[in-house]
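Q: What would this chain look like folded?
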Amino acid sequence: MMNAIMDTVDAENQVELEEKTQLINQVLKLKHTLEDLSARVDAVKEENLKLKSENRVLGQYIENLMSASSVFQTTDTKSQRK
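A: My prediction, written as structure tokens:
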């Protein structure tokens, strides 16, 4: 009788231990996933800042080209008709 009770308790403890182990493994897996996602977000933020800076430089370059080109200069249409 005592052996049967001990076996039942041991079996319950074993099941509980396996469940805890599975939960710990899931938590660790989720932790690693979160770390990976966080690193990816940081990398994307850095890339975004780099691209914004490059866009500003290109925008200034285009504005300088347009201001230096006579094609994009404003013209007075009245003086051209005379």
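Residues 44 and 58 are 21 Å apart (CA to CA).
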